[in-house]
């Protein structure tokens, strides 16, 4: 089992630890709901050091990343971050990831912990370009500071004017005199930062940020990371995105650029867009009592029409809701469906899957 | 260290039984509620349902997951704790006060197969 550089810090904070993608990670410190509410109302600090970082360097770095990535890398500015996916030729998703453009011949890919080995093997196998792909995951640690008070907490610790760091951009800066890369990104639907640094730096910053944030911040585990991203309909690989689901079926067309250069899987998506997908991920709200979970089957008058990808009792709204992959035409808003909850059929209705409004800081 | 109440019967799957006036009250232990975390829903059986020793009669949903609750004994449900329908968190607050069902036992000798507080404590260590 792998440990992140913050393992000892988690244990010292009495975290409930679980095995996640081969890492010992905190699921929560106090309670999932309490941590969730902190991020919505104040700020939370997450250890996301388990995420993977690949460097792509060389003359054809841009062409290479553009070829394996669904979004348009060629339009990126230096210092910009772009969200997208790597696809198999059949349009299924290898992984979803962030691409950072450091300069014209240097890009960083940030991938899911559970997919590091698979992604690296896949990307390496596609690299016929004049560039070097390296896996730096073991050297780079990462924490995410998320919530409406994130900027207020971080600003006193750096000379960099954080109000100038726009959403989905990044910069090199010093926090408490330590070199880090900071992007205005996250996985919670709130304003916030993701901070990358070496092991010692991240170990120090974890403690210092929690100290400086005082009552406005709390350490947050993977439990609320999932409820937070779910409420704002961000996908989790393995749930909303898999090798058998295309980005269009999953409803993340914004992460796909079909009117620019070629990328692996593009022709399948072009066809799918023209002909319309046969299924898509929608929101469901349970009318009966119960909780709907990942993997539960969904029916329409007895006919199997889909499956739950993620479900929770939303900590922010208290509603019992889910994202579900539903065959057309049962995906229409207001359609009455049934969910099989451990052998009992419960009534649900199709609704918008944005269960909670994002509050990003944009210009 | 989680709380264990003397005088109750326990299972190794972390349910407890309290016998009062010949009826069995069934709930989950402090250890169980602690490991589940915040409980957001309790799927309750109905009155007159029969329950069987070792078979699930309820499911408790925490934020993260659903867990089956097994009946420690065989019998008929005579009362369901309806408070849990709207306030499932009562189990987190006091797992020994907030029983889930009251059961008319079919065979009280089944109680002898359950664990004592002392035996249960060893399991939780």
Task: Kindly describe this structure.
The complex is a heterodimer of chains A (363) and B (125). The model of chain A has no long low-confidence stretch (mean pLDDT 97). Chain A has a six-stranded mixed β-sheet, sandwiched between helices. In chain A, strands 15-18-17-16-19-20 form a six-stranded antiparallel barrel. Chain A has a five-stranded antiparallel β-sheet with strand order 6-7-8-5-9. Chain A has three domains: 2-49 and 139-231, Probable tRNA modification gtpase trme, domain 1 (Gyrase A, domain 2, 2-Layer Sandwich); 52-135, Aminomethyltransferase beta-barrel domains (Alpha-Beta Plaits, 2-Layer Sandwich); 278-351, Beta Barrel (Elongation Factor Tu (Ef-tu), domain 3), CATH 2.40.30. Chain A contains nine helices and 20 strands. Chain A has helices at residues 7-12, 32-41, 61-68, 116-126, 150-154, 199-213, 222-231, 247-250, 266-275; strands at 2-3, 16-20, 23-28, 43-47, 52-57, 81-87, 93-103, 106-111, 132-135, 141-146, 170-175, 178-183, 192-197, 217-220, 279-286, 297-300, 303-313, 320-327, 336-341, 344-351. Chain A has 363 residues and is α+β, with helices and mostly antiparallel strands. Chain B contains four helices and nine strands; from the N terminus they run βββαβββββααβα. Chain A binds chain B through residues 16, 27-28, 31-33, 223, 227, 289-291, 293, 312-313, 315, 320, 342, and chain B through 37-38, 40-41, 43, 59, 61, 63-66, 85.
